[in-house]
Amino acid sequence: MIQKTMKAMLLTGHGGVEKLEYTEDVPIPTPGAGEVLVQVTATAKNNTDRKAREGLYPTKDKGDVTSFQMGGSATLTFPRVQGADVVGRIVAVGQGVEDTRIGQRGLLDFNLYADDRRNINLTPDYYGHGADGGFAEYIAVPSDQFHHVENADLADAELAAMGMCSYQTALHMLTSARIKAGEHILVTGASGGVGTALIQLCRIMGAIPYALSQRDK
Prior knowledge:
Elements: E1 5-11, E2 20-27, E3 35-44, H1 47-54, E4 80-81, E5 85-93, E6 105-108, E7 138-142, E8 146-148, H2 156-161, H3 164-176, E9 184-188, H4 193-205, E10 208-212
Parallel strand pairs: 9-10
Antiparallel strand pairs: 1-2, 1-4, 3-5, 3-7, 5-6, 6-8
Helix pairs in contact: 3-4
């Protein structure tokens, strides 16, 4: 039986790590229609989490310290549970979701979509920014955004490190440039998450990656 409250790390405002507060009495979300409740087993920390916390996404007109707001008004409100790259197991389902999904391990598509389309995000935002993310024991998300991963060779932490943030960015870069098999691709900053994803995706696509990085990395 799932308890009523959970442990979570709450972001209470813009600033340093002192703005992160650990608590054990956050209400566990209830999955709504079309949603699943995921027990989080691993969450990656990416650069966006730090930048959002420090307020490094200034508004275009005033340069205020705030969150990014490409879709209009700011959606980062406090307190907020950060963490976009979420791995876990489904422990409950909302109305309209098959019970057979309970127990599935998967990876979250972190985007907050404006409508039912999942191939375009017209108001860019994501879990951990405009909605609570994975720095907690549980998270409720749309069923069709939590993708079942059957590969048991990947540990939960490994799967979280391969999350949508790096790979989605890398894939958009390659598709925007219309990369084809046999082309030679220079990957700068190749030791980072996006750089690593670019190298792997290039190999899948048949392109030839050249990695550029600092010697100590």
